[in-house]
Design brief:
The chain has three domains: about 1-245, Immunoglobulin-like (Sandwich), CATH 2.60.40; about 255-425, C8orf32 fold, CATH 3.10.620.30; about 435-635, Jelly Rolls (Sandwich). The chain is an alpha+beta fold. A hairpin with a 2-residue loop joins strand 15 (about 240-245) and strand 16. This is DUF3857 domain-containing protein.
Length: about 650
């Protein structure tokens, strides 16, 4: 409300004043032309977003973009930046960027010399053809408006440009349009996301024109958790059945055809020098196929490094395996192809596979066959009973372990001439498990000696594994931040890693802590759950729109054994809890035997996809855990 009032005062000032317009001024950009309803929860408003795409014969594409955005405060200064990718197959021309004040008066232009041009992958000569132009148009006097225009020419395509109406939260949209003129010989297909509007279609010379227009879309205050962000913003995806990329023609008429095309793109790129072949054969002589694969994988990890290049930048074709050998580095495509080439040498069959790596993989929509559903490449060693997946970009992953980055999801590969969609390794709650025992020796002044022993496996091993690779100083900083013990002083920390296909870790930490419990008179107040409390969950009044997806199930089993001063008894304690929901299970129990107070906690997080109307029940389940995890036990001196 304060934000809207301040803008109202600005409007009155503009209306009361008189302005001398220059030829470069654009009064239509004045903030008085923004509908008031768009200002709610908005740090910026897209005034115009015009994307025109011209699909020409021979798979050439011309893209013309004009973006005009008004920025109200520093929270959205990043919206004044633009990063435009190009390479030897995509050229850029006619870039312009102008800045206007609140009333639409021209302030300045961003000059060509101020537009940075650099490699998309800094410091790696292999990718020097893959570049970006980066312009920044901050003004600093709010509100201000930025107008950015440019053209890109594509010599062929795999993916057509995607129209994203809102690409961030707290940005409203006044006007946005997409125009597609298709004069090529391919029928245009489109998939809309979160848009009710349908395109206006017109016949034009040698083809057809499609026009989408939207206006006055309020800002998205926040994205809903547990659902892919890209699926929550309005937009349109475009595709044609046939495409041509780097001179390689392919088809998106079906998933098998697209997968086959990507497979064919890698043919002939596995050649290795004879001296390397001899070395690999010597390393694996006399081993079983699985032992050979493990030896090759671990040798590759020790002798290469990963260069982070997103799939699509640097192309979809892997660099030559012999170049990886000579240079010692590569991106996900290169290292996966290189590992495949090494396995070929020793007669172990493997398959190059595309997958989406990271959190919240996009949901595959019916009718949309698109490379946007993948951003990473891994290797599969197929076996009827024991398929092995390899993450070739990691120098530390145990053989056969994918973890939460690419585990539990779909992948696309071509085997024996057939493109298929398959599932990667699925990790259950039994695989992702932590068993932790904590002993607390409590003194009468409330201080304590604490020892925590944890055995973790699956995705829960990843945190201790990462800590094990840190220096002593870094390790302590991380532990102090992670510990929930009040006022801790770490005496020692030991960790042992077991790098199996389902890896595990064993940790032991000894702590001295002050004021773990509070003593008042003859009573002691303590929270028995000292190591694993569920974080606070805030309820939302927002009506959920999307399903919620819970990934990576896990199980946590905690036992906290308190040795309390002699002569104490429980006066009040929390009731034992046992909850079973579709989203998880939660159990706690407390018992006192002599001077040993034992608190047990079991939490099972389930995986699944649930409808939006169940979200509040899910939140209530988590709130119950939060409340129970922080409950206290009150003890008093036993009567004599």
């Amino acid at each position: 409300m304060k934000h809207i009032k301040s803008l109202t005062l600005l409007w009155l000032m503009f209306l009361a004043g008189s302005f001398t317009l220059s030829a470069k001024d654009k009064p239509e950009y004045s903030i008085i032309n923004i509908p008031g309803e768009l200002l709610k929860e908005a740090d910026a408003v897209i005034r115009q977003n015009q994307l025109s795409i011209f699909i020409q014969p021979d798979f050439r594409v011309k893209e013309i973009s004009k973006e005009v955005i008004t920025i109200f405060n520093a929270q959205k200064d990043d919206a004044s930046e633009k990063v435009i990718h190009y390479d030897k197959y995509i050229s850029i021309k006619n870039i312009s960027c102008n800045i206007y004040d609140a009333s639409g008066n021209f302030v300045k232009s961003v000059k060509n010399k101020d537009i940075n041009d650099y490699s998309a992958v800094s410091g790696v000569s292999l990718y020097e053809d893959n570049r970006v132009k980066h312009l920044k148009a901050e003004y600093g006097r709010y509100p201000y408006t930025v107008e950015i225009q440019y053209e890109r020419l594509h010599k062929g395509y795999l993916e057509l440009p995607r129209w994203i109406v809102q690409n961030d939260t707290r940005i409203a949209v006044q006007n946005s349009s997409l125009i597609v003129e298709n004069t090529g010989d391919q029928e245009l297909k489109y998939i809309t996301t979160n848009l009710k509007t349908t395109p206006k279609t017109e016949d034009i010379s040698d083809g057809k024109r499609y026009t989408w227009k939207v206006e006055n879309i309020p800002a998205i205050e926040r994205l809903e958790p547990y659902y892919p962000a890209i699926e929550q913003v309005p937009g349109v995806g475009l595709q044609t059945d046939k495409f041509n990329y780097l001179g390689f023609e392919g088809s998106k008429a079906s998933w098998p055809e697209l997968i086959q095309w990507e497979h064919d793109l890698q043919i002939g790129r596995q050649e290795l020098p004879e001296n390397l072949k001899a070395k690999i054969k010597e390393l694996t002589d006399g081993l079983s196929p699985l032992e050979k694969a493990k030896t090759v994988y671990e040798w590759m990890q020790k002798n290469t490094r990963y260069v982070s290049v997103q799939l699509g930048i640097g192309g979809f074709q892997a660099m030559l395996a012999q170049d990886v050998y000579s240079k010692g580095y590569g991106d996900c495509k290169a290292l996966t192809n290189y590992t495949k080439a090494l396995l070929d040498v020793v007669g172990v069959k493997s398959v190059y596979a595309s997958v989406y790596g990271g959190d919240s993989p996009p949901i595959i929509r019916k009718g949309e066959i698109s490379q946007r559903y993948t951003n990473h490449v891994i290797l599969c060693i197929p076996n009827e009973k024991d398929t092995v997946w390899l993450e070739c970009t990691s120098q530390t992953n145990p053989f056969g372990y994918l973890g939460d980055f690419t585990g539990n999801r779909t992948a696309m590969f071509c085997e024996d001439g057939k493109g298929r969609i398959v599932n990667t390794t699925s990790y259950s709650e039994k695989d992702n498990r932590r068993v932790r025992t904590t002993t607390v020796k409590l003194s009468e002044d409330g201080n304590a000696e604490i020892e925590i022993t944890s055995k973790s496996q699956g995705i829960l091993y990843e945190f201790p594994d990462a800590i094990s690779r840190k220096s002593e100083d870094e390790r302590r900083k991380i532990l102090y931040k992670a510990l929930e013990v009040p006022n801790p002083n770490i005496e020692s920390y030991k960790v042992k890693i077991f790098p199996n296909r389902l890896p595990s870790s064993l940790e032991n930490i000894k702590i001295n802590a002050r004021r773990v419990a509070t003593k008042t008179g003859n009573r002691i107040f303590l929270r028995p759950n000292i190591v694993n409390r569920y974080p606070k969950i805030t309820s939302s009044k927002h009506q959920r729109k999307y399903d919620f997806i819970l990934r990576n199930p896990k199980q946590e089993i905690d036992s906290v054994i308190w040795t309390i001063p002699e002569g104490m008894e429980i006066e009040t304690q929390p009731k034992d809890v046992k909850i079973d929901t579709p989203y998880g299970k939660y159990e706690t129990a407390i018992k006192l035997e002599g001077n040993k107070l034992t608190y047990t906690r079991i939490y099972l997080r389930k995986a699944g996809k649930f409808p939006p109307e169940e979200y509040q029940k899910f939140i209530e389940f988590r709130q119950t855990m939060y409340k129970n995890d922080k409950k206290r036990v009150v003890m008093k001196k036993r009567s004599t």
